[in-house]
Specification:
The structure holds two protein chains of two kinds. Chain A is mainly α. Chain A has a two-stranded antiparallel sheet with strand order 1-2. The longest helix of chain A has about 60 residues. Chain B is mainly α. Chain B has nine helices and no strands. Classes of the chains: A mainly alpha, B mainly alpha. Chains A and B meet through helix 6, helix 7, helix 13, helix 16 and helix 17 of A and helix 2, helix 4, helix 5, helix 6 and helix 7 of B.
Chain lengths: ~950, ~140
């Protein structure tokens, strides 16, 4: 191979070859036309090799036939035979000399897209496919880093100078590798990997079949006995079962059509609210099932406890009266054991006993732990996906290329979106011009002052609300103290005062907060949203904290309340219900009236936008209440389910009727991450700590509930452990674990220390990676600078050399000429005669005029990397540079560089590299390295 | 069309871009073309399935990025160059920006996203940009 190369280089006739000229396709060709499939070109393919005695050529790849009709065919157009370039693109085209040479230059980048690239693009599909195989490969050894355009795709390989049979070999090998790699994966990974291949269905199927074939043939080598067969079958059926189960949630997707409608009309951002709502609904359905199954059903089986009350209707709002002595609340549950049908506290039958105390404790505990895990999991996943590299703000580029919402299908919505995008682009252009106007000191101070004032006012409002709520609670307390056992309707309705006030605060204060934006200037709208969210969260959480304080301090101590857990449960029930009613009113007044006024009376007001942040915060607030209430009222999730279900339809109708899509682009994914984090941090962790405080510290009521008679609810567990210790001596292991691990402070101390150490280690790793990212980014930009620098140098040299050759008259030095124009004229005038002969030597590599100089390059020189071929022609001189460049390009971030860099153009066009260039490059590199060293 | 007897038949582009899911999409022609085997927009059954599988929720980010790149690469030269960006911009704004504005925006986009300074966006640049735009995963998604 290398021999051939040398021949190619040394033979002067080679350089006179027509190749260079032929490589140019006619730029007029339509983009999607496939010249190989067209009738005109076909005969040449067939006749080509035989007639000219060139190397064997494969039949032209016919696109229409489908790439992998026969499984052995490589999914690519085979390389054009060496001599066919000239034939395919006859040099009679008048444009032939136009886009030639440094095609990447802006002058002819578009309409005269370099034919080589066009040709490349014809292989688009195949190239992408190859790239896709690589994506599988990335999982394993990142042998070739190929991107879609595939550094090792057809075109790249061609440019690298592989002969077609070798090229076929490489492809075949690559495919074999892929199959092997896939075969080595576990079946689940394999399914996923095959799914990720950017190929069409048929090809994926082919690959899959091959993999399966390979697997079965491998299996045949192993000895087959009944056992392996059986296990195989079992695992297969398990897998099938799992697959069909995993399809179930998709089939059962709730509100599929509605969600599509919303997404189509309002885009992904508004949709994210509804998805969040749906997620919360799922959460509540799960918790309802758990609580109902493990707490309520056993209690209902216990016939001793009967509810004696009359239903009056107001209970639906207040949750008191009839409900107060029902399964809805803590107080109704018994503290004994339930067994079978006729159960009682001291049943002595042999049937297994169901201890209500433990059931209550462990169900609530397990539910909260599961909630915690699921929240942490979704928060972490969403964080990883959405904040991965999102450090830098995506400006115009993101707006243009990644912001279009493909799910919008409504004509009006599309229009609106286009208008919004246009305004945004115009704004950003205007901002760019105003950017340099920096604020004066006084302006900065004024801004700062406004921010401080806004924060003070908002915190003051929150504090005032808290105080108001607390005094209202105390007032209620006094009423109860005055007339302890009042059953009158007015007294019951009076309990609604507190939740109404709380909901009113939650409705009005956020509106006031959003008015702040009229006076408070923010440089970025993002900051404004975050400030608004923080203020709202602060308000809601401080009110909840105040309520919790009241419940845990005042209610527990109050002797007039005989079952304080039920009392708190009722309070929470009322808060949830009234919050729901205010939500209804809010969407009516906030959205419907706004819409009516905006369209009928004051057109300046406009149609309201759907306020995603406020609505999501409302949901979070309600969910926090539900979590706090889970201990006092195990069936609260049922209420929450009904509420969320109704809210979904209500909001949908309100949205469709009254609202318009948001004008500003809303970073939905990141905001959702923020909301999930909010749901986790103040909301869930707050609720968890409240419940934990009750369980470990607060004495339960004397006369009601499963934990009656205990000092604290947790005593149920310790008493149970003691009884286990006495009753079953066999289970000493569990007791030992309980005594030495669960109760041991030292154990938790050690665990905490270990976790802290781990966190520190990861912290350090993250810090290291950050530095690495910065370094790599710098390297990329350096590489870009290198590129331009080299190109400039080469341009200069080219100019020099062409001047020299022109002086010399140039005939004998043509093969060393960098000047294209010169070559062309030379070729036209002189080389006609030798054309046929030379064609045999013409590059296979070259498929377009993109690299016109390729023809002069050593064709089959063994090359490890693309740019090793840089600075062609003079292998010896080139080596130093080439290897140097080659080694540089190996940094990881840019492994796919090979394919796209214009170096390959410059390589090929370049004249023999004089040592001056090499030295210049070396000097530059050295200088840069020194710079970097100083930098770090 | 008789799919059972002639499985090679293709649905013409005109029919596909008039689907309700695509009808209003400014990139409808490009989407269909990118997924057609021959690049002309006529889809075989397999192509059609491919299209909606890539545009589905389950498709991995990498795959979506590859096809999004193809869609924005109007002249199929494996780069998103300035002319591609101009076309994208015109489609996204219904050609109501002045040529100077279009030019300015396109230049800025290239300036922002081009890492290696070659004046056009290669897939690596595009992918890098996509990785900073987390919404892409949910917006490059057609619900069916």
């Amino acid at each position: 191979m290398s021999q051939q190369n040398r021949d190619g280089v040394l033979n002067p006739a080679y350089h006179h070859s027509e190749t260079l000229e032929m490589d140019r396709g006619s730029p007029q060709r339509s983009q999607h036309q496939n010249p190989y499939a067209s009738e005109d070109f076909r005969p040449r393919w067939d006749g080509g090799p035989a007639g000219r005695g060139g190397p064997e050529v494969l039949p032209p790849y016919d696109m229409e036939r489908g790439p992998w009709d026969t499984t052995e065919t490589i999914p690519m157009r085979p390389l054009p035979s060496e001599q066919d370039f000239g034939e395919r693109y006859p040099s009679t085209s008048p444009q032939v000399h136009n886009g030639f040479g440094f095609e990447w230059e802006p002058a002819n980048e578009n309409s005269l897209a370099p034919p080589g690239w066009q040709q490349n693009s014809l292989e688009g599909h195949q190239a992408y496919r190859q790239g896709g195989e690589s994506s599988v490969r990335q999982r394993g050894v990142r042998k070739y880093s190929l991107f879609p355009t595939g550094t090792l795709s057809t075109s790249a390989l061609e440019r690298l100078g592989f002969k077609e049979d070798e090229f076929q070999d490489v492809l075949e090998e690559e495919r074999q590798d892929l199959v092997r790699e896939l075969a080595a994966m576990s079946s689940r990974d394999r399914v996923r990997a095959v799914r990720q291949l950017p190929m069409n269905l048929q090809e994926k199927d082919q690959i899959r079949k091959k993999v399966l074939l390979k697997k079965t043939s491998e299996k045949q080598h192993q000895e087959q006995n009944c056992c392996t067969d059986c296990s195989q079958n079992v695992s297969m059926s398990f897998r099938r079962c799992g697959a069909s189960f995993s399809a179930v949630p998709q089939a059962l997707q709730l509100w599929q059509g509605t969600l599509k409608e919303i997404g189509g009309k309002f885009g992904t951002s508004v949709l994210s609210y509804f998805l969040f709502l749906k997620w919360l609904l799922m959460f509540n359905i799960f918790s309802f099932l758990v609580n109902f199954g493990f707490i309520t059903v056993p209690q209902l089986l216990d016939h001793e406890a009967k509810n004696t009350g009359t239903f009056r209707g107001l209970e639906i709002l207040t949750g008191a009266g009839y409900f107060s002595n029902s399964v809805l609340y803590y107080g109704f549950y018994s503290n004994g054991t339930v067994s079978g049908g006729s159960a009682s506290g001291n049943s002595t039958s042999g049937m297994p006993q169901y201890n209500m105390q433990l059931a209550y404790f462990f169900t609530i505990g397990a539910y909260l732990v599961l909630c915690c895990i699921s929240l942490v999991y979704s928060a972490a996943r969403s964080f990883r996906e959405n904040f991965m590299l999102a450090g830098a703000v995506v400006g115009n580029a993101g707006r243009l290329l990644s912001s279009w919402d493909f799910s919008v299908v409504n004509e009006k919505a599309v229009r609106l979106r286009q208008d919004n995008l246009r305004t945004q682009l115009k704004e950003s252009l205007a901002e760019k011009t105003n950017e340099n106007l920096s604020l004066t000191l006084s302006q900065k101070l004024a801004r700062f002052g406004i921010h401080v004032a806004a924060w003070l006012v908002s915190t003051g409002m929150a504090a005032g609300c808290c105080a108001g709520v607390y005094f209202l609670c105390c007032y209620n307390m006094n009423l109860i103290n005055k007339s302890p056992a009042s059953q009158s309707l007015t007294a019951e309705a009076g309990t609604l005062l507190l939740p109404v006030v709380v909901s009113l605060i939650n409705l009005v204060i956020p509106l006031l907060y959003s008015l702040f934006k009229k006076v408070e200037p923010f440089t970025f709208p993002r900051h404004q949203i975050y400030a608004l969210i923080i203020r709202n969260v602060l308000l809601k959480m401080s009110i909840l904290a105040m309520l919790c304080y009241f419940w845990l301090e005042q209610v527990v101590e109050n002797d007039n309340i005989n079952c304080w857990e039920t009392f708190v449960g009722q309070d929470i029930y009322r808060l949830i219900i009234i919050d729901f009613i205010f939500c209804l009113l809010g969407s009516f007044f906030g959205e419907f009236l706004h819409n009516v006024i905006g369209t009928k009376c004051l057109s300046g007001l406009g149609v309201p936008e759907f306020d995603i942040a406020r609505n999501v915060l409302d949901l979070i607030y309600a969910q926090t209440l539900a979590w706090i209430g889970i201990f006092f009222s195990p069936l609260l999730p049922a209420i929450q389910i009904i509420k969320l279900f109704l809210i979904f339809y209500l909001k949908k109708v309100s949205l469709m009727q009254n609202c318009q899509p948001p004008k500003r682009s809303w970073r939905a994914a990141q905001m959702m991450t923020t909301f999930i984090l909010l749901l986790f941090f103040p909301s869930f962790s707050g609720a968890l700590s409240v419940v934990a405080f009750i369980v470990w510290r607060k004495a339960p009521s004397e006369s009601c509930g499963p934990f009656r008679g205990l000092a604290v609810p947790y005593d149920a567990v310790s008493q149970w452990m003691d009884s286990v210790d006495i009753d079953f001596h066999g289970s000493s292991c569990a007791v030992w674990i309980y005594n030495n691990l669960i109760k041991s402070v030292l154990f938790f101390l050690i665990i905490t220390l270990l976790v802290l150490i781990l966190i520190y280690l990861y912290w350090q790793i993250v810090a290291g990676r950050k530095v690495l990212i910065v370094l790599l980014q710098e390297q990329i930009s350096n590489e870009g600078k290198d590129k331009t620098f080299l190109l400039e140098k080469i341009e200069k040299l080219k100019a020099q050399i062409s001047a020299q050759t022109a002086q010399r008259g140039g005939a004998e030095v043509s093969h060393r000429t960098g000047s294209r124009a010169f070559q062309r004229s030379r070729r036209r005038s002189q080389d006609r005669g030798s054309r046929g002969l030379e064609r045999g030597r013409v590059s296979t590599v070259d498929q377009g005029s993109r690299s016109p100089g390729r023809g002069r390059m050593p064709e089959y020189e063994p090359r490890s990397r693309g740019r090793d071929t840089a600075l062609p022609g003079y292998v010896q001189e080139g080596i130093g540079t080439a290897s140097m460049l080659g080694s540089e390009r190996e940094y990881p971030g840019r492994a796919d560089y090979l394919q796209e860099d214009p170096y390959s153009q410059e390589d090929s066009t370049g004249p023999p590299v004089p040592s001056a260039l090499v030295q210049a490059l070396l000097a530059r590199r050295q200088a840069e390295e020194e710079d970097e060293e100083e930098g770090y | 069309m008789d799919y059972t007897n002639d499985p090679d038949c293709k649905v013409p582009i005109q029919l596909i871009i008039n689907m309700p899911e695509l009808m209003e999409n400014p990139f409808k022609e490009r989407i269909v073309e990118s997924f057609s085997e021959a690049g002309d927009g006529n889809l075989s059954f397999n192509d059609f399935v491919d299209m909606f599988s890539v545009l589905s929720e389950m498709a991995p980010r990498e795959l979506k990025a590859i096809y999004a790149f193809k869609i924005y690469d109007f002249n199929t030269d494996n780069f998103i160059c300035k002319s591609d960006l101009e076309q994208t911009l015109n489609k996204l704004t219904r050609e109501e920006l002045t040529p100077e504005e279009v030019n300015l925006v396109c230049e800025k986009v290239i300036e922002e996203a081009d890492l290696d300074g070659d004046g056009k966006l290669a897939f690596a640049d595009f992918e890098n940009m996509i990785s900073r735009a987390p919404d892409f995963l949910s917006t490059f998604h057609i619900r069916i």
